[in-house]
Amino acid sequence: MTGEHTAYQISRLTEEHRQAFETLDQIVWADEPTAPDWPLSGGIETARAFVASPDGQPPFAGIYAHYDARVTVPGPLGSLAQVPMPGLTWVGVHPDHTRRGVLSTMLRHHLADLHEQGIALSGLHASEAGIYGRFGYAIASLDVTVSVGGSLEAPGVDAGDVVTTFHRVHGAEPTVERIAACYHRLAPSTLGAVDLPDVQVQRSLHDHPMSLRGSEPYHVLFASRGGQDVGFAVLRRSPSWDKGLPEGKLACTWLEAADPPALLALARRLAGFDLMASVEAPVAGPDSPLVWWLGGPRAARLATKDALWVRLVDVDAALAQRGYAAPASLVLDVADRDAPWNARRWRLDVSDAGLAQCVPTDDAPDLWCEVTALGSAHLGLRRFAEMAAQGLVSELRPGALAEADRAWATAMLPAGSVSF
Ligand SMILES: CC(C)(COP(=O)(O)OP(=O)(O)OC[C@H]1O[C@@H](n2cnc3c(N)ncnc32)[C@H](O)[C@@H]1OP(=O)(O)O)[C@@H](O)C(=O)NCCC(=O)NCCS
Of the residues 120, 140, 160, which one is the last residue of a structural domain? Predict the structure, then answer.
């Protein structure tokens, strides 16, 4: 065990230490020994992977990495835009070193590193909800799951031209590539979607021995129209029987659909599997039409939790990259403990075309906010007025909250992104 006051240094992972990186990851996640074909850190580029230790040598105290990802943010006047957002992942600290500031050191390093590179955002999925808020990350989209069943009445939506087919993911045909291609095509038109490199898509579709226990390998339903894929549902079924009656469970782990007819066609197929007593599926958000086709939140047994956490690394660049729904002229006084370059006043001017400029200023502020408030508003999940009621934002000029909410407004809630 390391002493209380150990100083940790962060260095880039080298190929020679990849094994030590993977070993620490397995300890941190209490993973069972994996099959030789499990793609451990293969998808992690050493240029994006870091280790923490007292002397730069293994065994490491902590690790982290990030994927080269992009997130779909609001564009000007109701459009959408994809911007770079490294996906923070593989964060772990050895049990001998926890609660000694290793994560804090790694995250401050991550923010300074992205700031130096001029990257405006960082995103992650949190293992526990209490960890990342203190570092300026904020919940920016929700994971929503529903129980799919019943007749799925959807007046006005015609799924008649959508063809659905069922395949094993790691079967004879190359379905992993097909899933990835469809996902990359749909992500730019899905607010909140995180477009990840293919290596991570492959990783998320791998049949890990732990998840195979009692379940079939991954299967996928494709929805296509005119020969083009317009959606997919990745799923596993776990068969079981009670007094001779089928009690199987179907877990859909990834559902993407280009439009309501594609979603309806996939949902009807999910609901229609024989021998399944329960069918759970993720939907894009609480405002997904599937929730309402199922009869509303109670009938859909809607369950929700945080999905993507977003951190504005550079407030000015992040606010200027995003588009807006209405003109605004606001001075924001931003509080930010871990990225001190953000902690100042910023003037945001949004034109009638929904395009923004953001520059430092000493003018009197219209709104005071924690940097986390900007993260929660970034994809359109939360409104400033609501965050003011919570105490994350203060209105210093009457009307400024409403002006900000009109500018940041989005037509739909952001979709919960696939985990990474
Ligand atoms: C979560 C984890 C990375 C924290 O690392 P750590 O080095 O112990 O964190 P630090 O010592 O830098 O703690 C920083 C602060 O976060 C708090 N914190 C750490 N882990 C926390 C948790 N799981 N829940 C709530 N708060 C937590 C600490 O109490 C500390 O608070 P303080 O600033 O008020 O003193 C580590 O416990 C771990 O590896 N857990 C298992 C894997 C995991 O969950 N990884 C995260 C992947 S998303």
Answer: 140
